[in-house]
Amino acid sequence: TNKPTWASFNVATGLLNGTPTNADVGTTSGIVISVNDGTVTSSLSAFSISVANTNDAPVISGSPNTSVNEDSGYSFTPSVSDDDSGDSLSLSITNKPTWASFNSANGQLSGTPTNADVGTTSGIVISVNDGTVTIALNAFSISVANTNDAPVISGSPATSVNEDSVYSFTPSVSDDDSGDSLSFSITNKPTWASFNVATGLLSGTPTNADVGTTSGIVISVNDGTVTTALSAFSISVANTNDAPVISGSPATSVNEDSVYSFTPNVSDDDSGDSLSFSITNKPTWASFNVATGLLNGTPTNADVGTTSGIVISVNDG
Questions:
Q1: pLDDT tens-place string over residues 30-42
Q2: Per-residue confidence (pLDDT) for residue 243, from 0 to 100
Q3: Under a CB-based contact definition with an 8 Å cutoff, are residues 98 and 120 in contact?
Q4: Which CA distances in Å does 157 have to 61, 152, 201, 212, 215?
Q5: What are the CA-CA distances from residue 125 to residues 91, 166, 295 (Å)?
Q6: Each residue of 195-242: pLDDT tens digit?
Q7: Among 13, 126, 268, 277, which residue's Cβ finds the most Cβ atoms within 10 Å?
Q8: Residue 80 phi/psi, 5° resolution?
Q9: CA separation for the pair 196, 122 (Å, rounded)
Q10: Half-sphere exposure at residue 13, Cβ-oriented, CA atoms within 13 angstroms
Q11: Rounded distance, CA 131 to CA 84, Å?
């Protein structure tokens, strides 16, 4: 009677035997083994059996991923159990990847590797300890696979330039993939500018004919796989005054009583400018037209001689 639940009993031999588990820790009392000859029953004195607790090693299991792409999240948490419900478990790791963090309370290994972490970390071991016994997962490795990183382009291009002044802008570019070959391109390039596809340099010197705005300029960089672009921008060419140009070869002699006439050639890139002419040391026998620059007249006998230092000038305002 009062047979322990974890034991079996042989009614032919009286053998009581069994192997108690952690769940059987405790005492079974009032156990009585009896024998009967068909008429009379005789019994042993009642006895007890106490099952003493012994430490059960914790159990750890799980199949961690052994590869991850750079810039992707990695996470693994092992399954842990311990038949000794009162045990306090702690987890540890050896050869932790530098890009990962480890939670010693639950054994979670997690992190996001970057381009700098490409490669393999070997001999990673996650262990659990119940205060007495340490049990470990089999050692494993994690390989970080390279993935293409888009190039980064930045910079603040000037959005205005004066005519006849130099414009120059080179964007700043970086690429985590050091082996990538970068090439640049541009859309809506100003007609007055040149573009370097190796460096992204946009440069040039606009003239009076280029006054105005070029919009929607986009400079892009490509690493062979991905294209990244600066935000579209505009460049306005501001007008600046261009000096008028005056030329010509005036005759330096004339006979008395003969007509003398000279009109200089004049041009001005600023088509809206109003030009006026002036003269210094004008011959007394000549007249001068301030609107056209015409110097003309007919010298007489009284004018025979030389007038020096004659200068004809033009002013654009």
A1: 999 999 999 999 9
A2: 94
A3: no
A4: 58, 16, 11, 17, 13
A5: 10, 63, 103
A6: 999 999 999 999 999 999 999 999 999 999 999 999 999 999 999 999
A7: 126
A8: -130, 140
A9: 46
A10: 6
A11: 11
Tell me if 316 sits within 8 A of 296, measured CB to CB. no
Pseudo-torsion of CA 177, 183, 187, 192, nearest 10°? Answer: 130
Using a cut of 0.85, tell me whether the model's pTM lies above it.
no
For residues 152 and 221, give the distance between their C-alpha atoms in angstroms, rounded to a whole number: 8
Give residues with Cβ within 8 angstroms of 156, minimum separation 6: none
171 contacts 219 by C-beta, under 8 angstroms:
yes
What type of residue sits at position 145? Answer: A
- The string of DSSP letters for the chain reads ----TTEEE-TTT--EEE---GGG-EEEEEE--EEE-SS-EEEPPPEEEEE---PPPPEEE-----EEETTS-EEE--EEE-S-TTPPPEEEEES--TTEEE-TTT--EEE---GGG-EEEEEEEEEEE-SS-EEEPPPEEEEEEP-PPPPEEE-----EEETTS-EEE--EEE-S-TTPPPEEEEES--TTEEE-TTT--EEE---GGG-EEEEEEEEEEE-SS-EEEPPPEEEEEEP-PPPPEEE--------TTS-EEE--EEE-S-TTPPPEEEEES--TTEEE-TTT--EEE---GGG-S-----EEEEE--
Does residue 316 come out as left (phi exceeding 0), alpha (psi in the -120 to 50 range) or beta?
A: alpha
Please say whether the beta carbons of 29 and 48 come within 8 A: yes
Alpha carbon 44 to its chain's center = 85
Cα(167)–Cα(170) distance, rounded to whole angstroms? 11
For 245, the token pair is: 């140009």
In this structure, what token pair is assigned to residue 192?
Answer: 């007055």
Of 77, 76, 62, 91, nearest to 142 by C-alpha is 76
